[in-house]
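User: My advisor, Dr. K., asked me to get a structural model of this assembly before our group meeting. I'm new to this, so sorry if the format is off. These are the inputs:
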Amino acid sequence: MALGFDELLDTGGFVPHGVCLLWRPDILMLHVGSDILIGLSYFSIPVALTYFVLRRRDVAFGWVALLFALFIIACGTTHFLSVWTLWTPDYVLEGLVKLITAFASLGTAAALWWLMPRLLALPSPRELEASNRALAQEVATRREMENRYSSFFNNLAEALFIVRVEPDGDFAFEAINPALARATGLDPERLRGQHVRDALGPEVANAIIPRYSLCRDRGESVDYEETLDLPVGQRVFHTVLVPVKDAAGRVVRILGSGRDVTERKRLQEEVIQTSKMVTLGTLAAGMAHEMSQPLNVIRLWTENTLTRLQENLLDPARAERALKLVIEQTDRMAKLIDHVRTFGRRDGGGMQAFQPANCIQSAVELVRHQYGMEDIEIIESATSAQLPVTGRPLELEQVILNLFSNARDAIVALRATGAAAGRIMVAISDDRSGHNVVIQVTDDGGGIAPAVLPHIFDPFFTTKEVGKGSGLGLSIGYGIIDGMGGRVDACNVELGGGRRGVRFTITLPSQPVSSADREFSHA
Amino acid sequence: MLDPFHILIAEDEVLAAMALEDFLSLRGFRVTVAANGVEALERYVSQRVHALVTDLRMPRMDGQTLIREIRERDATLPVVVMTGYLNQDSDLTHERWKPLEIFSKPVNPRTICETLNRMLGLPQRA
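Assistant: The format is fine. Below is the predicted structure of the whole assembly, which you can bring to the meeting.
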């Protein structure tokens, strides 16, 4: 039997609920009071919830709160209806409201269980507080580190700078430290954010930008020595550039540190110059002899010719021969003079590419005669060296002369013990790889004691008696070869027939290497 | 006519030796040239020599050693030293090496010749 809505709400057949309570005022009051209090409370809760959700916009799952509000309002309504039905038997209406309440409760309950894992995942206030504390700690630590680093940056004696690599590859100063400001006379405030090209004079900029570009393009550390004309004057810096990359591996910054080595450089040059003078001093004796020889020949032949002329004994062929001899001898002297002149010069010119074989040739020529006097023979093996090396030819010659001079001393010392010695072998060739030139100077002077061998390149180390050697020759030679990107090694060799000696091997790269590669080769 | 005086020249520089030999020959000396100390000593031992003209720096045996060797055999042989570089601690200037005269290179052959004449007791030529 289908019932209409009006019929459904028809209360005709029911009695009010109060009948069940026998209209006892005390029980009625208990129910009415309790239901009204519950209903009012239930009605107030959704107001508070809604207010909370609206005010705290960051509340997660706010719609659950609204579902809650709906369910509680429905619940409150059922309580008010309970009061109503005490007197008015609208049980159907009450039932419908309960049905709505049931659905709202069911929905809320289901939603709660469905959300439970996600609700549990929400950090509790305690957890939040702990993580806040950790964060605060982290911030403090970082701030302290930053302070420490900035105090490093600001107080370190090393000149430091940070250069930003712009998207177009150009360079701009981000910061320079006070040490750099002091060393260079540049103003940190004026430099900040400026393009390197605009911040520095064109000469200095042109000198350093290629270095920065190398660091940027290679993405590797670069170190080099540079001489810069700065507001404080000309200074020599040993500078190291370190690239800083972003996640994509692009160099975005360059950290640079520079050490002012002007003074050290000057001392070094002085020491080299001093040693050159010492070498020159020992050569002076030989030189005096070398110079007097051609002069003597000239004097004798001219006197001779003059005498023959005066005595009518001069035939044209003899006169011609004498004059040609005189010319030859003046050439010989001119060569010697040139050599002495260049040898004494302060730095011997800039770095250049040259054939090392020529240096060996002139070193040999310079001492061959002198050593010949002492019955020391210099034997050159056929040279197959074609590769050029980079450096200062005169410095290499100085190294070779120093090796000859040590070889000679060893031979003379060995002879003093009664043993036979007197050969210096010099060889130069390209190595098989075609990248290096190898120069070997070998003597038969008895060799070096194994305990001494590791020290021979140490500055001021000498085995010679006081006054005989400065102990600087080999260490300076080492420095010169190192400056050319090469290395020098020494070892004892057996030469057969019971003869022993030392072999110095100089390996010079044919291609000038970057200092980074050099570091690598030393590792 | 008397036999000419025999001069031994010890000099490793061939061109110098050759010119001096020619000059002294023109002045009437008989000249023998040795290219080093050892060769000079051999000549001295095997031939009669009246005077020695020597360089100091020579291969195999230097002039100083040569002079010492000769002085052991003959205390009075006139010696003329031609040197490009006289070592400061050389004692050749000492009396005990005399008769000995030292000339720096370049030498004047006339002076050498005059000195030889004087040391050998010959009359000086005009």
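One thing worth pointing out at the meeting: The two ends of chain B are 20 Å apart (CA to CA).

User: Perfect, thanks a lot.
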